[in-house]
Design a protein that fits this description.
With 114 residues, this protein is of the alpha/beta class. It is 24% helix and 24% strand. The chain is built from 2 helices and 5 strands, in the order ββαβαββ. The strands form 2 sheets. The chain has a 3-stranded parallel β-sheet, with no helix packed on it. A two-stranded antiparallel ribbon has the order 4-5. α1 crosses α2. The longest helix is centred in the last third of the chain and has 15 residues. It is globular and about 40 Å long. It starts with 7 loop residues before the first strand and ends in a 6-residue tail after the last strand. The relative contact order is 0.20.
Length: 114
């Protein structure tokens, strides 16, 4: 990674008991929604989450930033949907429990003609 370019790891939710130290090599963490938010509970709807994601994800740069998908699976799916709809591709951090480290996975929006 180029150290002169600021990288950000956009994390869907801050986990209660998960050490995210291994993500630091990819950039500063930026949490997108409150840690205990769950779509379908306590007036949290997919529409409200999409609205909450708009502002922070407007700063997402698919060339330099990363997604870390943690927490509520619906929030993870909505986050990926927003990024792929806007940019067509992104890089996701994935945990390898055998190697005890994060690695990158490039994700692209499927073509409609495929």
């Amino acid at each position: 990674m180029n150290s002169s370019t600021a990288h950000t790891v956009f994390c869907t939710q801050k986990p209660a008991r998960l050490d995210l130290t291994g993500t630091r090599r990819y950039g500063a963490l930026h949490f997108l929604v409150p840690p205990k938010a769950q779509v379908g509970k306590a007036d949290v709807t997919s529409e409200s989450v999409l609205e909450e994601l708009k502002i922070p994800l407007a700063m997402f740069n698919p060339e330099t930033d990363f997604l870390l998908l943690l927490g509520d699976p619906v929030i993870m799916a909505l986050t990926l949907h927003v990024v792929l709809t806007e940019h067509g591709h992104c890089t996701v951090l994935k945990w390898d429990k055998n190697a005890s480290l994060y690695y990158t996975v490039h994700v692209e929006q499927p073509r409609k003609d495929a």
